[in-house]
């Protein structure tokens, strides 16, 4: 067996700590700088959620962390080495990234789609090893879709489909998972479904980074929140430290009260109703 | 071997042979460390297509102005029998059949690749200008340098590849190609090249115009061993190369980001697949002139028969081969004057 990755069923003790960090990066698209002079350490074992107003550069940062965008300046360091020095496949064995809106292929079953997550571990003449089978069934079990493995993906609900995509990323067996707005286009029930899943994965010791739009969901689920505004990191810390009326005003231009969530005591953002006179 | 535990248990103890994995739709062909995924339904469709192609081949060898029996055809293939019969079978019917099969197959494969890269059923080479580009190359050669089989073929290849590079360069934005932009730019460039061909035709003298028109119609009449061999060489080189890229190109259909996240160097693989498929198209067009519809239809029919997505190269090859060989056969069989252009 030539696979060097750790099996998915590893106990929380043991596996080496994997690190991912951005160092003074400037990132952008031709003619437009989105992020400049930004540094971020992805904390191992944490569920980091990046929030910020539209076009603040949160997806751009995530894509750079997954090497989908090159950095114009600065470096992204993965496991002690500049990320651009790895082969594309090697990066895919260390960092999994679920993009914002992947295209569901025609006529594909749940198991077949999830099995595509094994690509970075496969070769032309090793298309399906026992390790592949174990990783795919493990990933399906983790998202609770093992009994639906034979179904066609386009027959599934939006929430189930998103769980299948997450399973594909899990089958990659990367210690670090990046999720770009995994709850977009989902109704509230399915959003909670997906975020509960993320929370479970985090509890099992995985390092997660997700970009989310919904501040309250971020405050509820994240173990670490990064607030971005205009290509910079404005604040980071636990939900209690970061989600404050002052910061919401500064980063989002939002006038809001912050209450304690009656369910769990975490911050709950209630935007002020401008129509009500005070 | 037992120390690998759960992973090993999953698909049983068999290390060799065709293994069924309860998770997957297909089977896994395993031989020690080597494992290949096979899909019985795709295999079945491929097998049936191969049989149909074979049947079409037999009928093609049996039909023509000279009546030859099955036994005589078999003998003639081995070089035995009356000299006139051997010459007809070996020198005319067989190379024309092989050219039809190989050109049809090449177009089917190219269509499958282009439709996948452009994520659009309209993205076949005859629609996005590559076929027209090859034709324009040949037309310019015939008009300006006076034709010649080999020269025309080379000009067609140059025209096809050049057109593809222009379309690719124009469709690229921020270092990314692909998708609808490729189709639209291709249609535009194809229209310009078609206009160029018409312009040259109007200016040409009558003999040049006639030979251009004959070439432009796309035909298998009079195609001999040089044509069959040139396409066979191209297929032997380009098809395996495309097969090595097949899975990555299929995964591109999930979107550039998703493919990249799985470790696929998206733009590099897309460009490589594009170049290989264009070369295949150009060599095919060089042999027979532009033949429409095969590249568009073959992958689509295959997708419906197999009920599978993705790039299915070998079934598309067999489908394209069968379509063109059957069309050629049925056309050469019609003795009336209304034979379609590729057989007239």
UniProtKB/TrEMBL annotation, chain A:
<dbReference type="GO" id="GO:0005886">
    <property type="term" value="C:plasma membrane"/>
</dbReference>
<protein>
    <submittedName>
        <fullName>ABC transporter ATP-binding protein</fullName>
    </submittedName>
</protein>
<dbReference type="InterPro" id="IPR017871">
    <property type="entry name" value="ABC_transporter-like_CS"/>
</dbReference>
<dbReference type="GO" id="GO:0006826">
    <property type="term" value="P:iron ion transport"/>
</dbReference>
<keyword id="KW-0408">Iron</keyword>
<keyword id="KW-0472">Membrane</keyword>
<dbReference type="InterPro" id="IPR003593">
    <property type="entry name" value="AAA+_ATPase"/>
</dbReference>
<dbReference type="GO" id="GO:0016887">
    <property type="term" value="F:ATP hydrolysis activity"/>
</dbReference>
<keyword id="KW-0547">Nucleotide-binding</keyword>
<feature type="domain" description="ABC transporter">
    <location>
        <begin position="20"/>
        <end position="255"/>
    </location>
</feature>
<keyword id="KW-0410">Iron transport</keyword>
<dbReference type="InterPro" id="IPR027417">
    <property type="entry name" value="P-loop_NTPase"/>
</dbReference>
<keyword id="KW-0067">ATP-binding</keyword>
<dbReference type="GO" id="GO:0005524">
    <property type="term" value="F:ATP binding"/>
</dbReference>
<keyword id="KW-0406">Ion transport</keyword>
<keyword id="KW-0813">Transport</keyword>
<keyword id="KW-1003">Cell membrane</keyword>
<dbReference type="InterPro" id="IPR051535">
    <property type="entry name" value="Siderophore_ABC-ATPase"/>
</dbReference>
<dbReference type="Pfam" id="PF00005">
    <property type="entry name" value="ABC_tran"/>
</dbReference>
<dbReference type="InterPro" id="IPR003439">
    <property type="entry name" value="ABC_transporter-like_ATP-bd"/>
</dbReference>
